[in-house]
Amino acid sequence: IATYNDPKINDHHLYIKNLDKGIYDLKAPQYKKITLDLGTFDCNAKVIGSCGVDLQRINEKYLCKKHRYVYGVGKESDSQKNLFSNIVKIDMDDHKHKIFHRENHYFGEPVFIPFDKKDITEDNGILMTLAIDESQKKSVIIGVDASNMQEIFHAYLPCIIPMGFHGHFLEDHV
Asked: What is the pTM of this model?
């Protein structure tokens, strides 16, 4: 779960009027693993890694199962100006992270799409995301290889599409 030490994100940080003024002074969120003992109902939270990440997703074949990888958007440190300027992969086993970054790009929630639905390798797929290229003033769809966090493709759109917070891949409708 992504957690913020400051509740201001809910107050005004994501208001368009503040984003237009360049007000992005949120601290990086912490990513925490929450465990609940179903016998005692004890709840424990542990910070995972050093990279702030939000809008996190996993390979949906691992929903409600033990999983190793989490993907999201974030920033590497509080010194980085913009909140959603990276796509992040967190390894829940060793707590390390990998980052995909494109200069002047701001990313929406990455959606994991498996390369082969029969493959059981957890990170064998593509992360699809909509981004805004600030320098081109256009939206771009970007595909990143989830295993190595390298760009596979990008496709510019003729305009800026407003960012949404969530995306979905509906395999049965492809």
From this structure: 0.78
